């Protein structure tokens, strides 16, 4: 097995052109209507990214090829749907499984542009939604703008983990790393599995299950973070292998989503709009989650008083554990995911929550990439927010569920939040970039 792996890696190092072509074609087929339904594209993309991480093919090139491939698949699917119109249900596979197309249509009609962003990360919907967008004659300019952003996020989520695994193969992990990594990853996976299972089964106390499992994992981490130094140091060094100028700029933009000023602004906008729409139960849930997460994280920072990695030219002065950016990011996007998933089938609730976690995970990763936090810091922040969100949801829904927001309400909320983020993230960006110089 080792000989085969070395043969593949040696070949990829000397044949970067063919490896890049394989990444582009696989991304295209994974996002192409009908083909993406039967192609194990996720596995192939991860495998190719692992090989690329161990070869001379850099991360920017891999991300660019995956983005262009996914974008091409979207355009071809849109063109097919626009061309066939009412004949789409007669296409192979869809003719035998009409429920797939019906589900995509319902999702598209209910959430519009947002469905293309969310559906990009949902396997069965990814290759069908662009087809439906063309079939329903969505304006091409609007479709293009949405696909540009959706494909970019998708390429990062589906290739970055594999590329980092491949890069890790080039480094020899220190003794004890795999034991510590297995403990941390295994605990997180068990918590996620129990939480998802209880939600899919429709358990009445699924929020209590989530709060208990994530709470136990958080307590274990609070008592053991000092013994996970090998895990922290190795992953910290590994994250620096992908440093580049353009990625530095991107990560600073992402990390500013979790800044205190940003979170205060978007939290105020969200709560104010919920009050305006007279969604009082949703307001109680959102405000209690966001405020409790912020206060709890601040108190834990003072209690543990952990120093940050001393890599930045001007090291940050506040304490490190848990990560405030991670806690606030997870809290805010979990709140959005919970509110968006109200009055939907259990499977869709889980999908919305998992999708909502993607930007939160990106914020958390940016903190390690920018050397502002250790890996255990961001994990603790995410667990803290998950526990608080679960408890808040459990208490808010003790008598009756939180009602769902209308499509018009969501249009206003998403528009206001995006406008606020655009203004905040563009404000004084050079100073923000200098803050994380190393």
From TrEMBL:
<keyword id="KW-0472">Membrane</keyword>
<dbReference type="Pfam" id="PF01569">
    <property type="entry name" value="PAP2"/>
</dbReference>
<feature type="domain" description="Phosphatidic acid phosphatase type 2/haloperoxidase">
    <location>
        <begin position="282"/>
        <end position="393"/>
    </location>
</feature>
<keyword id="KW-1133">Transmembrane helix</keyword>
<feature type="transmembrane region" description="Helical">
    <location>
        <begin position="16"/>
        <end position="39"/>
    </location>
</feature>
<feature type="transmembrane region" description="Helical">
    <location>
        <begin position="205"/>
        <end position="225"/>
    </location>
</feature>
<comment type="similarity">
    <text>Belongs to the DedA family.</text>
</comment>
<protein>
    <submittedName>
        <fullName>Bifunctional DedA family/phosphatase PAP2 family protein</fullName>
    </submittedName>
</protein>
<feature type="transmembrane region" description="Helical">
    <location>
        <begin position="46"/>
        <end position="68"/>
    </location>
</feature>
<feature type="transmembrane region" description="Helical">
    <location>
        <begin position="140"/>
        <end position="157"/>
    </location>
</feature>
<dbReference type="InterPro" id="IPR036938">
    <property type="entry name" value="PAP2/HPO_sf"/>
</dbReference>
<feature type="transmembrane region" description="Helical">
    <location>
        <begin position="351"/>
        <end position="372"/>
    </location>
</feature>
<feature type="transmembrane region" description="Helical">
    <location>
        <begin position="260"/>
        <end position="277"/>
    </location>
</feature>
<feature type="transmembrane region" description="Helical">
    <location>
        <begin position="408"/>
        <end position="429"/>
    </location>
</feature>
<feature type="transmembrane region" description="Helical">
    <location>
        <begin position="111"/>
        <end position="133"/>
    </location>
</feature>
<feature type="transmembrane region" description="Helical">
    <location>
        <begin position="177"/>
        <end position="198"/>
    </location>
</feature>
<dbReference type="InterPro" id="IPR032818">
    <property type="entry name" value="DedA-like"/>
</dbReference>
<dbReference type="InterPro" id="IPR032816">
    <property type="entry name" value="VTT_dom"/>
</dbReference>
<keyword id="KW-0812">Transmembrane</keyword>
<dbReference type="InterPro" id="IPR000326">
    <property type="entry name" value="PAP2/HPO"/>
</dbReference>
<feature type="transmembrane region" description="Helical">
    <location>
        <begin position="378"/>
        <end position="396"/>
    </location>
</feature>
<feature type="transmembrane region" description="Helical">
    <location>
        <begin position="320"/>
        <end position="339"/>
    </location>
</feature>
<dbReference type="GO" id="GO:0005886">
    <property type="term" value="C:plasma membrane"/>
</dbReference>
<dbReference type="Pfam" id="PF09335">
    <property type="entry name" value="VTT_dom"/>
</dbReference>
<keyword id="KW-1003">Cell membrane</keyword>
<feature type="transmembrane region" description="Helical">
    <location>
        <begin position="282"/>
        <end position="300"/>
    </location>
</feature>
């Amino acid at each position: 097995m080792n000989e085969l792996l070395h043969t593949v890696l040696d070949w990829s190092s000397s044949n970067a052109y063919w490896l890049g072509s394989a990444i582009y074609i696989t991304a295209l087929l994974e996002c192409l209507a009908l083909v993406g339904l039967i192609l194990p594209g996720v596995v192939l993309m991860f495998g190719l990214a692992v090989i690329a991480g161990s070869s001379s093919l850099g991360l920017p090139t891999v991300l660019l090829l995956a983005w262009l491939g996914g974008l091409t698949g979207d355009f071809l699917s849109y063109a097919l749907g626009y061309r066939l119109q009412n004949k789409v249900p007669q296409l192979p596979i869809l003719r035998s499984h009409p429920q797939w197309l019906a589900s995509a249509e319902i999702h598209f009609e209910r959430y519009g542009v947002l469905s293309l962003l969310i559906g990009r990360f949902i396997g069965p919907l990814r290759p069908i939604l662009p087809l439906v967008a063309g079939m329903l004659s969505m304006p091409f300019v609007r479709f293009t703008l949405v696909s540009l952003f959706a494909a970019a996020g998708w390429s990062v989520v589906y290739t970055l983990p594999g590329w980092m695994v491949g890069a890790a193969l080039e480094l020899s992990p220190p003794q004890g790393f795999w034991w510590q990594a297995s403990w941390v990853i295994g605990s997180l996976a068990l918590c996620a599995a129990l939480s998802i299972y209880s939600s899919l089964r429709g358990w009445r106390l699924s929020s209590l299950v989530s709060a208990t499992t994530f709470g136990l994992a958080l307590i274990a981490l609070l008592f053991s973070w000092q013994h996970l130094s090998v895990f922290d140091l190795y992953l910290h060094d590994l994250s620096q292998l992908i440093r580049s100028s353009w990625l530095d700029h991107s990560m600073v933009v992402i990390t500013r989503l979790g800044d205190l000023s940003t979170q205060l602004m978007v939290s105020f906008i969200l709560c104010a709009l919920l009050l305006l729409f007279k969604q009082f139960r949703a307001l109680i849930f959102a405000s209690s989650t966001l405020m409790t997460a912020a206060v709890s994280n601040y108190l834990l920072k003072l209690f543990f008083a952990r120093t940050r990695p001393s890599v930045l030219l001007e090291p940050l002065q506040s304490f490190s554990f848990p990560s405030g950016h991670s806690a606030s990011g997870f809290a805010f996007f979990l709140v959005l995911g919970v509110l968006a998933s109200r009055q939907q089938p259990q499977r869709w609730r889980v999908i919305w929550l998992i999708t909502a976690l993607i930007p939160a995970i990106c914020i958390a990763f940016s903190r390690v990439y920018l050397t502002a936090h250790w890996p255990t810091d961001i994990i603790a922040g995410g667990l803290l927010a998950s526990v608080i969100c679960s408890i808040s949801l459990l208490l808010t829904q003790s008598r009756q569920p939180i009602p769902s927001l209308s499509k018009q309400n969501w249009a206003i909320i998403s528009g206001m939040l995006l406008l606020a983020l655009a203004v905040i993230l563009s404000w004084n960006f050079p100073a923000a970039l200098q803050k994380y110089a190393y």
